[in-house]
Amino acid sequence: MKTAKTLAQISSSKGFQLSEILVNWIYYTEETVILAYSEIKRRGIQINEEIEKLITTFSEAQGKTILQLETELFESKNVANYQEYYNTLSTFSETSNDDHKRLEKLRRDQMFQREVVEKKQANKDVLYGGLWFVGGLAVTLVSLGSGKGGPIAYGAVIFGGIQFFRGLMKS
């Protein structure tokens, strides 16, 4: 099975990767080889004799010249040449970029909403933790102050203190 690469993959490939496609053209689809060759030309990379021989061998195997193969491919893509086809990639990237911006805005909005909810919860923790702490402390002090003994509300004091300080840390 032959490997196919997209225009985006080809256009983002390094020069040696494009040459590798041409050297091993038999393992790639016709479209991939033509795109790699066209990208090399677009970048102005020098085509040496070895690459020229590989392109000639490839085009002979297809039964057409490389120019004919390029023309047929780009006509099938409804473009005049590789540069025009390459320019469609930037249009696609701009669309993807717009989508990315919308998603980023949505993510920021969700983070803001989460922060608002967490802030409200932190304020509640401070309020109710403080009430439990003060209430438990008051009950304990009153019962110990009477001299007769009584309930010691250390649970309310501990629980309230923890909740109060947790709320402070979150806010």
Could you give a quick summary of the protein structure above?
The protein is an all-alpha fold and 171 residues long.
Describe this structure in words.
The structure is a single chain. 78% of the residues lie in helices and 0% in strands. It is rod-shaped, with a radius of gyration of 36 Å. It contains seven helices and no strands. The model has no long low-confidence stretch (mean pLDDT 87).
Q: Structural class of the helix and strand makeup?
A: mainly alpha
Q: Assign a percent range to the helix content.
A: over 70%
Q: Taking Cα atoms only, what radius of gyration do you get, to the nearest Å?
A: 36 Å
Distance between the termini: 59 Å
Please tag this protein with its features.
171 residues, mainly alpha, 7 helices, rod-shaped
